[in-house]
Structure prediction request, 515 residues.
Amino acid sequence: MSPQFQQARWSEPLLSEIGTPGERGYVPTAPEAEIAAHAPDPLAAIPPAFRRATAPALPQVAQPQLLRHFYRLSQETLGNDVAVDFGLGTCTMKYSPKVNEHLVRMPEVQDLHPAQHEDTVQGILEVLWRLEQMLCAISGLDRFTLQPPSGSAAVYTNASIIRAYHASRGEGEQRDEIVSSVFSHPCDQSGPWSAGFKVVELYPGPNGYPELDALKAALSNRTAGIVITNPEDTGIYNPHIAEFTRLVHEAGGLCVYDQANANGILGIARAREAGFDLCHFNMHKTFSSPHNGMGPAMGASGVKEELARFLPAPVVERRGDRFELDWNRPESIGKIRSFVGNAQIAVRSYAWILALGPDGIREVAETAVLNANYLATRLREVPGMSQPFPTSNTPIEQFRWSLEALREETGVGSADVSRNLADYGYQPVFGSHHPFIVPEPLTPEASESFSKEDIDGWADAMIDIAKRAQTDADDVLEGPYRNACRRIDAAALDDPERWVPSSRAERTKGAVRGD
Ligand SMILES: Cc1ncc(COP(=O)(O)O)c(C=O)c1O
Prediction:
């Protein structure tokens, strides 16, 4: 086990349990009376019956004490800035430059309100417009919306555009099927399903991607389109993708390219040349914004010119030197999210693309592919590791391999190995591998952000954990040992009675019970 790593362990009380009445971390600059003189009474609009009788018991904590509290808590995490993080299943966790955080905290960005008059937000509208031009150049498509608040929402948006397209041609009812592949990201099936389609799934052939014959068998005059990830979540690139899109078009369908994770293909392969009509990028995954639960997201959905009329309203238009929000879009699928989307993410992405330029963007992909393949080479040394589709042995970016043999030999599975990574100071990596087709899956992604040293350290930890499993499985099954929190009790996730009460939990409980 790594001798260097030992996470801090604080027995830190809750914020509400520390402090002393009267202590303050911040004293407002204006006296209360002065504020009251200039501002309307905030309680005036609330009927007396709804006002609380006593003030809430907010923590009363001095600034140094508050800082200590949060620093201690931050020492008990393996967050993205503390640990090498090779992703959470299919969630890229690459480095997001800090300078971009500085940009979004500038008052010119931070203090904007989405309901401001257009004349006062020309700057951000220009950023949105220019970012759209960049994404058009990167994808080869003609128009983008930045509204969807996630990659999954972008897939839903694109599926809704397909529905609107067929409806506009009088084929809305007939074309009710979307083809996808099981190793495309799960939202490529759930998004179209949420948009009202039946989903026809393709299974991989011997090389790890669906065969042309499987596609041909799935196509019919009910086909509305295909939604597919390439490389798939396994890291395997379907080399027949242009033939796939040709066949779908021949059947009367539209083709959607899920490019949420474009780390391995930026500047190299474009949606247009592969024959796609729509695509999406996860700006929070590929273009510099913290991914996952670390902040709001943006899925940018792109379309060819003939589908632009269906994009969610508003879109940003340039008229001379002025930028305007165009709401007059009678054929639009409607709104996917309020206003124009998460503008701060647009600023980060715009800065990232500008800083890299076309050559830098391509270098991102080349480095990500190199890193993926170097990582794959090192992981072949892990005892009990296997590659589900060995003929396709050059992953493009993230890849999904299996620790089934280790599990059979030692009883230690991929989730156990993952937990033990925390003892080496690495973020546990394997979160989402749906659908669980590959047994004991792991889906790491070194992206372009990590050095050879990082990759070697991570691979060495994997090798060490697997070897420890072979000599003393219980030692691994009980780990990790050096973290503030050793093992989370996941049993509550499967016990509806222990869920936080919410309307959503009640609905899910009903579904579990079969109500
Ligand atoms: C290929 C692919 N498509 C779609 C998504 C879904 O994106 P999100 O998590 O923002 O909904 C992901 C996950 O990041 C992904 O890897």
About this structure: The chain has a mean pLDDT of 91. The CA atoms of residues 8 and 415 lie 23 Å apart.
